Amino acid sequence: MTVTVRFAPSPTGHIHIGNSRPALYNWLFARKMGGQFILRFDDTDVARSRQEFAESIENDLRWLGIDPDRIERQSDRLAGYDVAAQKLKDAGLLYPCFETPDELERRRSRQRALGRPPVYDRAGLKLDDDDRAALEVEGRKPHWRFLLPNHDGDPFETRRTDVAWSDLCRGDQAIDLSSMSDPVLIRADGSYLYTFTSIVDDIEMAVSHIIRGEDHISNTAVQIAIFEAMGAAAPVFGHHNLLTTPDGEGLSKRKGALSIGSLREAGVEPMAVASLAVLTGTSQAVEPVQTMDLLVEKFDLTSVSRSSAKFDPEELKGLNARLVHGLPFAAVSDRLANLGIRPSAEFWETVRGNCEIVADARQFWQVVVGPVESRVEDEDRDFIASARALLPEGEITPETWGAWTSALKAQTGRKGKGLFMPLRRVLTGMDHGPDMKAMLPLIGRQNILDRLP
Questions:
Q1: Percent helix, strand, coil in the chain (nearest 5)?
Q2: CB under 8 Å to 261, separation ≥6 — which residues?
Q3: Cα angle at 419 between 413 and 425, to 5 degrees?
Q4: Are 135 and 98 in contact (CB under 8 A)?
Q5: Residue 231 falls in which region: left (phi positive, over 0), alpha (psi -120 to 50) or beta
Q6: Distance (Å, rounded) from C-alpha 297 to C-alpha 293?
Q7: Residue 232 burial class via C-beta count within 10 angstroms: exposed 0-12, middle 13-18, buried 19 and up
Q8: 282-303: per-residue pLDDT in tens?
């Protein structure tokens, strides 16, 4: 069997780090199993779907390292949904209902008041042709429900009907269909709900595995029943835990601040996002993974915890810094040039350990080329004058810093912070930064002298 998975976002907004988790899980699973990954846009909501959002989602996925094998759009497939819906209608498995939302809510309220579960009573099945014609004369349009197979021939006498599956993340699962309402698959305006279009597409595209968030577990039994009603075997399901804030808040409520686009603009590395989104909430250590190929090797659905995966932006910052510290010069040379830096391996290897994001290198490049706002405390002025006189002659090399500070220590008696800090402040304008032993040759003799009063 060829493994085929899909990620099916609605192009009604930008994806956020919470959305990236199922996208990454599906792509990594496909790559690990030698299968294919389909990016399928659920764009049948004409009023809200936008092409610019579809383009944004695709760009964000590619930035993360997710290259789709196929891109599909549900808006191109409407005729196929019509055919599939008619087959269910002809089989008596899709039936029209005319209740308004208010009427349905009143019925549910009465059922709750009587201590009964608010399950739809299948009143639509009791309507004959004359009843339906009369309701249509009133101006009512039907929505269509799928008749769940939770009975022995009489749909008004339901029985316990467990639908079981072996979940890739959660093990054996089962849901009783008798506790559920027949799902609406077609709205009164004639538009299809995602549950239906997704199943039609999954069958036609031979999707073998559906990997998604645990918030969809309750839908799975219904969907398996629809697959079987359409003459298809259901795919293998896997339901992973969801990313939340440390307080347990759903990330979708914070999608603006944590959108993939905003993280990219903030200078976060794609592998920092991917590493955290994939490894958080698993039994594996959350650590920076340098490439997607290495992440494929680490990926394991059985390691996913059943508890929520708490996402902390501060953890992302730390993870990103660790990735940046390990980036080779070849990986950043073009980016440094785009920042206005004349890149060199010596410069990058000197400063990267002090960069949380690659763009932090700009402040250290300013230190190298100048000008800088040199800082000299009143009590250090004589010391700095001595420093200018004792600067070793000749080429500035990594050994210059040690020779220079040793001479200053011998003459002034200073040591530790009192010896090093005044020099760092006058040469860089900073209290902290890269090792001065390596920075000094980059700054160069003339800049050193220009910054020493």
A1: 50, 15, 35
A2: 14, 56, 60
A3: 150
A4: yes
A5: left
A6: 7
A7: middle
A8: 999 999 999 999 999 999 999 9
Task: Give helix 400-412 / helix 436-443 axis angle, nearest 10°.
Answer: 110
Supply φ then ψ for residue 315, to 5 degrees.
-65, -35
Return the number of other C-beta atoms located less than 10 Å from residue 409's C-beta.
Answer: 15
* Of residues 252, 236, 247, 259, the one with CA closest to residue 308: 247
Residue 165 backbone phi and psi in degrees, to 5: -150, 160
Element housing 201 (H / E):
helix 194-204
Question: Residue 126 burial by CB count (10 A; 0-12/13-18/19+): exposed, middle or buried?
Answer: exposed
For residue 252, what pLDDT band results from cuts at 50, 70 and 90?
Answer: low
Single-letter residue type at 129:
D
**Beta strands across the sheet bearing 70-73:** 4-7, 36-41, 70-73
pLDDT at 239 over 80: yes
Structural domains present in the chain: 4-71+195-242 (3.40.50.620), 82-185 (3.90.800.10), 370-451 (1.10.10.350)
Amino acid type, 351: V
User: Helices 417-428 and 381-390 sit at what angle, rounded to 10 degrees?
Assistant: 80
- Going by DSSP bridges, is the β-strand pair 143-146/309-310 parallel, antiparallel, or unpaired? unpaired
Under a CB-based contact definition with an 8 Å cutoff, are residues 270 and 48 in contact? no
Distance CA 253, CA 85 (A): 34
| Structural contact between residues 236 and 208, judged by C-beta atoms closer than 8 angstroms | yes
| Residue owning tokens 């294919």 | 36
pTM of the full structure: 0.91
- Please choose, from the candidates 230, 227, 220, 243, the residue with its C-alpha nearest in 3D space to the C-alpha of residue 166: 220
3-class SS of residue 288? coil
Q: Round the average pLDDT of the chain to a whole number and report it.
A: 95
Distances (CA, A) of 243 to 16, 56, 191, 246: 11, 21, 31, 9
> For the chain, what is the largest distance between any 2 Cα atoms, rounded to a whole number of angstroms?
109
Helical ranges in 214-360 per DSSP H = 217-229, 260-265, 270-279, 292-298, 313-325, 329-338, 345-351
Q: Any idea what DSSP says for residue 141? A: -
Point out which residues pair with 41 in neighbouring strands.
73
Name the token pair of 397: 């090399």
Rounded-to-integer distance, Cα 346 and Cα 368, Å: 12
Question: How far, rounded to the nearest angstrom, does the alpha carbon of residue 166 sit from its chain's CA centroid?
Answer: 26
